[in-house]
Every structure is written in structure tokens, then in C-alpha cells.
Amino acid sequence: MTRDLIAARRWIRERARGERALRTGRLIAGLRLKPHAIDVRVNVDPIHWFLNEREDTRSSWYLEDAATEFQVQGLELDWAIVTWDADLRYTPGGWRHHQFRGKKWEQSHKAERQRYLVNAYRVLLTRARQGMVIFVPPGEASDPTRKPEYYDGTYGYLWTAGLQNSSDGRTGNNPV
Predict the structure, then answer these.
(1) 22-31, 38-47, 106-115, 151-160: which range is least confident on average?
(2) Which contiguous run of DSSP H or E holds residue 66?
(3) Among 70, 74, 111, 158, which residue's beta carbon has the most beta carbons within 10 A?
């Protein structure tokens, strides 16, 4: 995992280098990622994204356009970048589910919406056959929609679960 999108791309490209048959791509579930040049509302054409060659900027190889859980459901990549937004965040009180509405995050209290959100991340986290890097944005203190604390708890949880930081090679304290 990493908090640096450039490091995530580098990590994926290093693993897929020279392997013409391997497929890479970016995956997303959240809505507030435009500052990272990720817009879930951009409709990825799965034919170009999944089937075109490395040289085609519309292909997943470029690691520019990100596909949603709907666009990749039932499909697999070899190496993936999964972006974790503030819609599903870990807090001292456990997991919290949110929706971005208008200009702010609102907590989701409906069980159906919470299950949907968890399932979206489950789909994304099961699309990579060989490996993935999870990009957890660092947040931005001056942006009330991207406060660092929205992301820090999730990053800390994943670190404690033992995920390795792709930027520096360190691992967390796996309690198992």
C-alpha cells in the first residue's frame, strides 16, 4: 500500500515490465478523488480499457483511466492499483460508511447502503490475480472534503493488518 500515487504506478509497472501477457489497471469505488486525476464519472469503455494494447492511452496499461467495480465485475487484472476513498473509513469506533453528496460527506446509516459499499470494495480487492497496491490518499488539511483524518484511520488499519508499504518496503505489525 502507499499514499503516493506515483509510487503506486511505479510499483505496478516494475512488476509487469517485459510481460506482454500481463494486464494492469486502476480501480476505484469512491467519488472524491478528482484531485488525484481520478473521476469515477468518466465512463471507461471496457472494450478499449481491457483489450487494447499497451500503446493505446485508452487501455488499462496506461494506468490513467480507472474502472469501477461495475466495469470490472467478472473480469480480472494481473496487477492492479486499488484506490481507497473516504467513503469507507476505519475509525477508533470501527468502520464508517459515507456518501459524498453535493459538497460534503454524509454518514450512511442504512444497512443496505453499507453492504453495497463493502461489496464494492470486495469486488475491487478481488480483481488482481498476481498482486495489487492499495493507494490510500494522504488527504489535504486545507480541503474540508479531504481531511487527512478521513484516510489516516484506514491506512493505519491496513498497516496494522500487515500490509507492506510499497514506497519504503516496511510492513506493519501483523497481530496474527
Answers:
(1) 38-47
(2) strand 66-68
(3) 158
